[in-house]
Amino acid sequence: MPQNDVVQPQVRVRCRFFARYAEVLGTATHELQVPRGTTVGSAVQALRERLPGGQALPKVPLAAVNLEHVDLGHVLVDGDELALLPPLAGG
Amino acid sequence: MPQNDVVQPQVRVRCRFFARYAEVLGTATHELQVPRGTTVGSAVQALRERLPGGQALPKVPLAAVNLEHVDLGHVLVDGDELALLPPLAGG
Amino acid sequence: MPFVTHAPIDVPALLAEVARRDRGGTVVFLGSVRRSEDDGPVEAIEYTAYEEMAEAEFGKIVAEAEVRWPDAGFAVRHRLGEVLTGEPSIAVAAAAAHRAAAFDAARWVVEEAKRRLPIWKRERFDDGSRQWRDGSGVAGASDTA
Amino acid sequence: MPFVTHAPIDVPALLAEVARRDRGGTVVFLGSVRRSEDDGPVEAIEYTAYEEMAEAEFGKIVAEAEVRWPDAGFAVRHRLGEVLTGEPSIAVAAAAAHRAAAFDAARWVVEEAKRRLPIWKRERFDDGSRQWRDGSGVAGASDTA
């Protein structure tokens, strides 16, 4: 967690949205900047606040980072690809 | 069971042998005459005694009558088809 | 189609037999003649049957399966005659509304077929020798699948 | 072959991928788009995916299955795009020395795929209307199979 007044190092995260989420947001991608140490859960909160229609995203969605399922405590690093996944319905 | 000296009613049973049994007996069929009331088990005993190579049949083989699996207590009637089945090995 | 046949097994035909729009799950089992270190150099298996009974018994197994899984569909075959290593000798297809029933039903039919069909096999080896193969055989109780 | 594909599912190709002479049991599962009274007049389902992840995740599932069943072979597909009622959208083939492993392995892969693949579906009805279909959807939690 950032602790003082020096410029916080930011990480850039490429966000991707699929299926119903892409539809409600009107976009399939978003470039997000968040402080270093941000978790997936906090990034979701930021997306819900910053994106038009973001409130339609659930607070606790399924998520993947760099093509792997992760839980919301996963910490993001610069260059990550964060995907928010509607309930899976393959098969 | 026949009980006295009057001529015993006989039943005719068409016997069929398969796979290894047909090979050891050298035949795939035999017409068997046995007293009315004879069970499959007794018919097997008769076949073991009467047929060349009959001792090679097991005393308790798998058997079918008229295309249905039966146990050795099943009573034969005239015209039945009795099949002796080596251990099944389909599939 | 007869259940017991000398023709090679046609998987797409089996799938077509069980297809119905309300059946979302389909399971096909194929049991093939196998060759492994344990079994020696098997080149083919010759299947013989008490054909009338095998046909009747396979029909009974399917009828019983249709009682257990009322909306499911089944297609079954057992091949007779010589079947080369790698080729299927038995096929069971089951289709049901959902996958759990399709898996359970297919497996049930396969187990019943193995247990009940009056069918026997004789192995043919690379050197041309032949040997009956059953539960009591010298070759042991190993099975195609 | 990619695991996730827009091409129709080719069952004989899957069988060929898993065939090996020491594998006597093969199980194929097909999950098809179904139409039933409960679900309304579904004409087709359009599948979309997070394609790179679906491909990677299906590969992981297969790799994990190969650890659990070391001598088994696996071939898997998930179709994307529009799939008409009655056509398969997912296929899993597993071949093993014996039938028990083939059944267990195929079923395990199917369950993992259903649980883990980032794939979504939107139903298209006879009247042309469309609707996302997932566990949270109005249409309920019903599934293709």
What does this structure look like?
The complex is a heterotetramer, with two copies of chain A (91 residues) and two copies of chain C (145 residues). Chain A is an alpha+beta fold and 91 residues long. Helix content of chain A is 20%, strand content 30%. Chain A has a five-stranded mixed beta sheet with strand order 2-1-5-3-4. Chain A starts with 9 loop residues before the first strand and ends in a 6-residue tail after the last strand. Chain C has 145 residues and is an alpha+beta fold. Chain C has three helices and eight strands; from the N terminus they run βαββαβββαββ. In chain C, α2 packs antiparallel against α3. The radius of gyration of chain C is 16 Å and the shape is elongated. The two termini of chain C are 24 Å apart.
Looking at this protein, list some descriptive labels.
heterotetramer, A: 91 residues, alpha+beta, five-stranded mixed beta sheet, 5 strands, C: 3 helices, disordered C terminus
